[in-house]
Structures
1.
Amino acid sequence: MATYTKVKLSGSTDGRAVKVAATATAGTTIHTGSTTSTTYDEIWLYAQNTDTSAVKLTLEWGTATAADGNIELTIAAEAGLVLVVPGLILQNSKVVKAFAGTADVILLSGFVNAITA
């Protein structure tokens, strides 16, 4: 039977939002997946934009190779807690990184359900 443990994003300090400082690849580290092959990280991410303009956000999902792992979306001006990753799975030490069109205005919050088979 699988066990679930809710944990903070590894790039977070004390569960706080991670500020996206990078404006190009390789992005700001948000989370590093489990090193255990029998553990899957179910990742939930929410974005907020503190700028008065819409900002493009790129998530590098497990690879920095464009198109292979990029998730791109635009976060509306002064939007908060917009769901950007609805529980996608990552494992084997793969890393989620992020960069944005403007530095230091996008913050990513969320959590991980570590699922062990």
2.
Amino acid sequence: PRSALDGEYGDEAIASAVRRELREDAQTTELGGIEVRVSGGVVSLRGVVPLLEDAESAEEVASRVPGVVEVRELLDVEQYER
């Protein structure tokens, strides 16, 4: 929900929305264990994903959540695609 004071989305609401989208999106639903932190609308994604494509998908999904200003994809990739 938006803040009654300034009409902006709060960090906790953004984090919850990002987690929900990651769970519900077909590209990222299998990627459990991604830690989502938000500060000032900037989302940081941390954790380990199997492939580089998974990290890119998580970043894309997070970036489309309302209120997100920037996404910092800090995920470790187990295996790079060749």
3.
Amino acid sequence: MPQPILIASDHAGFALKQHLRLALQRLGLPFEDLGTDSEASVDYPDFAHRLAQALAEGRAERGVLVCGSGQGMVMAANRHAGVRAALPHDEAAARLTRQHNDANVLALGARVTPPEEAERILQAFLETPFEGGRHQRRVDKIDGR
């Protein structure tokens, strides 16, 4: 069985996270929901750090974070070694960040990305492989190697 995709949000991203959970189910992909569990106000860094820690522990290879703009989640997640979180605003950018940057965390903004577009971005992110080659050298530099 493949590793689950980790998914987490703050209160502003909760509804979109729920929508993406259904999309993952339709795609037949396992996932682990790391919270939040409602639209009650919470602090987005707590959930970004929780997801990044789970990646570091090897519980998954990919994750999805959702907040109002996506910006806070991507900033917090990228503070962790080995996390390459990206905030693509369309499918093309999602494919490129996987192909060229080996992004392992997708951040989305619930207030700026309609659910149907978020689904397409998610699918492109999950289906696109890393190209390696000349890009590996650059990814190694991101990771400080």
